[in-house]
């Protein structure tokens, strides 16, 4: 294999989550010594503790310029909201007071500062990733024009919001890598020059690879930092159940963020978990079960319970340690944020929706503090208590403004909220005392948690009824929502014969596994295909994941018309005078069909009469005969741009390859044998 296809010196995986995001990375020499030498950014901080991820929220100023991301965005937005709230309280105390705007000490005018940093003019977005997951097929085809609504109702193009968020994480890693490299270079320069090569390298082959990789990383530090883009492979994680359109949207956002197209790959989230768990020594009550899980022939299921979606995949370990999907990836939008939505619905029922919306608009700081408090509390709800007979009350503070708003809209009656709770027959389940509200844990579980958990369990029951996965007895439970004790207990209770494994640091398993994916042989194989090479070397595909198609894919074609078999409306006469039928769905690959790595499922030859050839790709969730049938839609076009020099109208060939995390289109000049990656445009 030539050097162009050698492994990347640096791999950085960005886990762009619904609720939290972060990145992990490793250098090739570290990977070769120990694949689990994976680093996460250590410095995310919310002023209370260090976390491996930061909230997926982003803030733009009133000029719609990027301001901050994560905890920094939360902090700035909270300060803006607090200032606005203070101003509102001052105005309410004395509406007629329009005299001095400055205090006795000559501090900056409050009014001017509020005007400068008016929270209503800033755009704050949170948990926007799920906007890309739509059940409506027509909505999927509008991603290019999709706009996201900020907390204040103002909108920005979704591509701008996503790309700025990815750019922040990209820039953050590059700054960290630069700092680390400078430090390491200083340490390296202090080493004795006579240090023996035998002490520094263990073998000739290792020395060659390590020296190449370390030199590449070191060379990143130059006056222009010109080699950054040459040394880093970026891996962006996406749910396995996402559409082709949503996956391409994420790629386009990453490219707009400054990541080169040929230095970017997408990793499927549950696959990343499986790759990590192959390396981890998983234990359950002190008993090592790693050998059981990853022996050839063994089967296991990965349930990735994130904030937005729940991704479920099942695998069998092959003799060469490759993972083979037993069933196409499945799941739905039943992640942890559904619990949050039901909690908000509960507040709407208690205080009435209009009051809650007023609370959100007038006191955004208190509102976000309430949501953050619930995010922390929901991870502990359902834990066993020392005295199980004693009812547990979950306390929510900072609700004084909400309770006051409800009281104000109900005739200023001090007992308004108590009467409301009594009307709802919730006197024994909800108690309000001053700015605090206490909710009976059992009632909270039934109202907020039970529905989403029931949906997840139901999906698993349906999946275990499939013949390919019914005999699986090991389940890997990962993702932020997997830390919920209620979900863990529900799955264990419903499937008592299954071994449930919660890997250590399950909430960061995806981004660590994505780093391993970036170092894998599959990436080398993908780059060879993109350059028009054949996968003739067995080792290139031996460790790859063998996937299954999530739908029927095909192209529109014309066939000879047959009376009684084809629709008359599709009948036409071609140039040769033959009766033809148009719009036939020519199936390239079936739903749940195994897709071998680099498998070419489509090939078509064109006689170039212009600089562009176009092939329409269709997708259907069921078997269809025509491309215009319900459930079948055009998901994108393969566009092959030729050079302007086509004087002899020579032939060109287009190939479509399945089996990777993305579909790859390749074009070839049949005369010169020159190949290039064609554009598969899935965002119409």
From TrEMBL:
Q: Would the keyword Nucleotide-binding turn up in this protein's UniProt record?
A: yes
Q: Which Gene3D superfamilies match?
A: 3.30.420.40
- Name the UniProt key words of this record, in alphabetical order: ATP-binding, Nucleotide-binding
**A Pfam family hit:** HSP70
Where along the chain is composition biased (Basic and acidic residues)?
197-215
Which segments carry the region annotation Disordered?
86-113, 188-219
Name the SUPFAM superfamilies on file. Actin-like ATPase domain
An annotated Gene Ontology molecular function: ATP binding
Start-end of Acidic residues biased regions? 89-105
Q: Which domain of life is it from?
A: Eukaryota
Q: What is the name of the protein in this document?
A: Heat shock 70 kDa protein 12B
Q: What's the source species for this entry?
A: Magallana gigas
The opening ranks of the lineage are: Eukaryota, Metazoa, Spiralia, Lophotrochozoa, Mollusca
């Amino acid at each position: 294999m030539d050097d162009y296809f050698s492994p990347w010196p640096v791999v950085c995986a960005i886990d762009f989550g619904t609720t939290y995001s972060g990145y992990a990375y490793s250098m090739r020499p570290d990977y070769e010594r120990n694949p689990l030498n994976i680093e996460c950014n250590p410095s995310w901080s919310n002023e209370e503790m260090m976390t491996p991820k930061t909230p997926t929220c982003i803030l733009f100023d009133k000029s719609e310029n990027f301001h901050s991301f994560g905890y920094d965005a939360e902090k700035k937005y909270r300060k803006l909201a607090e200032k606005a709230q203070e101003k509102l309280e001052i105005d309410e105390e004395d509406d007629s007071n329009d005299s001095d705007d400055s205090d006795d000490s000559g501090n900056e005018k409050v009014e001017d500062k509020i005007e400068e940093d008016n929270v209503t003019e800033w755009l704050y977005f949170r948990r926007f990733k799920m906007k890309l997951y739509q059940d409506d097929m027509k909505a999927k085809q509008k991603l290019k024009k999709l706009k996201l609504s900020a907390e204040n109702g103002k909108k920005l193009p979704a591509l701008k919001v996503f790309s700025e968020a990815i750019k922040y994480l990209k820039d953050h890693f590059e700054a960290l890598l630069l700092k680390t490299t400078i430090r390491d270079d200083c340490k390296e320069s202090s080493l004795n020059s006579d240090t023996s090569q035998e002490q520094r390298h263990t073998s000739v082959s290792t020395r060659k690879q390590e020296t190449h990789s370390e030199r590449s990383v070191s060379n990143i530090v130059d006056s222009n930092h010109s080699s950054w883009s040459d040394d880093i492979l970026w891996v962006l994680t996406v749910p396995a159940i996402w559409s082709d359109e949503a996956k391409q949207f994420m790629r386009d956002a990453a490219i707009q963020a400054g990541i080169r197209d040929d230095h970017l790959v997408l990793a499927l989230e549950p696959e990343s978990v499986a790759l990590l768990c192959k390396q981890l020594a998983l234990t359950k009550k002190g008993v090592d079960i790693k050998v059981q899980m990853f022996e050839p022939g063994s089967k296991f299921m990965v349930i990735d319970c994130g904030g937005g979606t729940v991704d479920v995949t099942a695998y069998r370990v092959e003799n060469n340690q490759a993972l083979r999907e037993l069933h196409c990836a499945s799941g739905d939008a039943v992640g942890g944020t559904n619990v949050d939505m039901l909690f908000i619905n509960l507040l709407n029922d208690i205080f009435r929706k209009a009051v809650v919306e007023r609370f959100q608009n007038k006191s955004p700081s208190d509102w976000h503090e309430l949501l953050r408090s619930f995010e922390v509390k929901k991870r502990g709800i359902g834990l066993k208590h020392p005295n199980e007979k004693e009812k547990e009350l979950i306390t929510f503070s900072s609700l004084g403004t909400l309770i006051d708003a409800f009281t104000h809209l109900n005739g200023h009656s001090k007992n308004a909220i108590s009467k409301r709770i009594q009307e709802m027959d919730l006197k024994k389940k909800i108690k309000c005392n001053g700015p605090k509200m206490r909710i009976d844990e059992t009632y909270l579980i039934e109202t907020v948690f039970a529905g989403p958990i029931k949906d997840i369990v139901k999906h698993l029951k349906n999946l275990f009824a499939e013949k390919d996965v019914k005999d699986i007895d090991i389940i890997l439970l990962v993702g932020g929502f997997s830390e919920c004790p209620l979900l863990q207990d529900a799955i264990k209770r419903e499937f008592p014969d299954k071994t449930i494994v919660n890997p250590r640091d399950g909430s960061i398993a995806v981004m660590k596994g994505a780093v391993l994916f970036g170092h894998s042989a599959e990436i080398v194989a993908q780059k060879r295909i993109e350059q028009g090479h054949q996968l003739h070397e067995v080792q290139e595909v031996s460790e790859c994941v063998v996937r299954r198609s999530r739908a029927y894919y095909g192209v529109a074609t014309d066939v000879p018309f047959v009376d009684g078999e084809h629709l008359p409306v599709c009948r036409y006469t071609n140039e040769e005078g033959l009766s033809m039928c148009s719009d036939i769905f020519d199936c390239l690959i079936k739903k749940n069909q195994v897709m071998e790595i680099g498998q070419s499922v489509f090939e078509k030859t064109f006689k170039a009469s212009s600089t562009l050839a176009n092939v329409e790709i269709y997708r259907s969730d069921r078997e269809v005969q025509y491309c215009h049938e319900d459930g079948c839609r055009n998901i994108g076009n393969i566009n092959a741009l030729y050079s302007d020099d086509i004087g002899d109208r020579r032939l060109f060939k287009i190939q479509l390859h399945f089996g990777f995390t993305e579909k790859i289109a390749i074009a070839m000049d049949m005369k010169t044998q020159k190949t290039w990656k064609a554009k598969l445009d899935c965002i119409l």
